Amino acid sequence: MEPGEARQVLPQLRRGALEYCVLALLRGQPRYGFDLVRELSEADGLLTSEGTIYPLLSRLRKDGLVTTTWQESDAGPPRRYYALTADGRSALERFVVDWRRFRDGVDRVLGTTPAPGPGRGRVATAADGTDGGQVGTVTSSAGTGEQPGPGRSG
Questions:
Q1: Which residue has the higher pLDDT, 48 or 70?
Q2: Where are the beta strands (DSSP E) in the chain?
Q3: b/e 15-40 (16+ beta carbons within 10 angstroms → b)
Q4: How far apart are CA 53 and CA 35, in angstroms?
Q5: Which residues pair with 139 in a beta bridge?
Q6: What's the pTM?
Q7: Lowest-confidence pick of 26-35, 60-69, 94-103, 122-131
Q8: What phi, psi does 144 have (nearest 5°)?
Q9: pLDDT tens digit string along 80-105?
Q10: Coil, strand or helix: which one is 149?
Q11: What whole-number distance in Å separates Cα of residue 114 and Cα of residue 125?
């Protein structure tokens, strides 16, 4: 790999994750486009220009992952607010599970995180049966010869 090629990794990662970051920002409440732009711009490396977010929001709407409504604004013209749909929430939950698996695998290969073992947990998601996407830690003694102790699941 040539030195210049390494710089192309961030745009590729951004393209793959940006739409799910937008869905994640819509989890709590509907938001308007510029609010999303501001939030994503504050997260290092996620948004390079305002012009990338609006076509993405349009595609998410066409795909049925978000809905839109117009609301009056105290400071100017009406704003288009975006809200997560049930399909959008499901897509986000699947992505979170896949992302964590991918991230953990890359971290292990790079040596930036210890491999799972006794006493180390993984993050539980809504797909694991936790309530409403709340995050918790699940520990496992599978394959270690240990018996689950108090406060531990097996």
A1: 70
A2: 31-32, 66-73, 76-84, 121-124, 136-139
A3: eeebbbbbbebbeeebbbbeebbeeb
A4: 11
A5: 121
A6: 0.68
A7: 122-131
A8: -105, -10
A9: 999 999 999 999 999 999 999 999 99
A10: coil
A11: 20
The domain 3-85 is placed in CATH, from the list 1.10.10.10, 1.10.540.10, 2.60.120.20, 3.50.50.60, at: 1.10.10.10
48: its two tokens:
């390079």
- Cα distances from 148 to residues 120, 122, 133, 142, 154, in angstroms, run 13, 15, 25, 9, 5
Ranges of each domain in the chain:
3-85
CA distance 88 to 64: 7
Q: How many residues does the chain have?
A: 154
